[in-house]
User: Fold this.
Amino acid sequence: MRSKLFVPASRPELFDKAELSEADAISYDLEDAVDEALKDEARALLSNHLSKPQTHGKLVIVRVNGVQTPHFEADIAAVARDGLDLVNLPKIEDPSQIHAAVSCIETHEAANGKATPLGILVNIESATGLQNAAAIAQAHPRIMGMQIGFGDLFAPLGIAQTNTFAIAQVRWCVRMAAAQAGIDAYDGAFISIDSPDAFVENARAARDMGFAGKSCIHPSQIALANEVFQVDPKELAYALKVVRAADDAKDRAVGAFVVDGRLVDGPFISRARRIVSQARKLSTQA
Assistant:
């Protein structure tokens, strides 16, 4: 999931446009993008949309309102149906919130006759959530990824969203937490829509820290994210060589070997397999 496009659930005129975009995933938003007075209407609009056959082939995500809010269960009841792949849980601070969310999800999956279990994308958006990120990431097998919410995290603390030191520290913590759980980490949104060069620089910094993709708040950011998080052809070619050599070495009970003049052992083999796996996933999505 290189790119994830946010779409306000209160604006159905944007649904078809999002599905025709080049984004790997669509994230319908019932939380921050929807005014309190429009929550019920947006929920009904989105529920109706998800009830229709989804033929675009994109990953479908819904960011619901927080587990602690009065909107959460109504959101889940409306969207836990076959048209949805992942629930994005905002402002998670403790593993107990994951367990409460899963219990609610299970109830409404059964009630709606959903055939496949929903995955969970967790947002880290507070100092407490960041502190507990590793425990949160490992809280339940449904969790497939962890995402940063820079705005909610930084604004209350008076940290500028342009503070590269703070951004790097948060990315490092979330990336390590995701790694402990064996899941992907996804970078947060970049709010300056009219600064494509800055977006690319920001996204590359996330990619270089091992992030798998980035949120997009405007269609103009999709192609930029896709390009940054695409698997590099040279890197893929080398990874394929490593995987083939690793399979051969395993048959010969060899733990370390050389590929193109570079020593390769366990960690490098694991990385090569991840690169090949990512490339195959992206090829399937194309």
Observations:
- The mean pLDDT is 92.
- The chain has two domains: 3-228, 233-285.
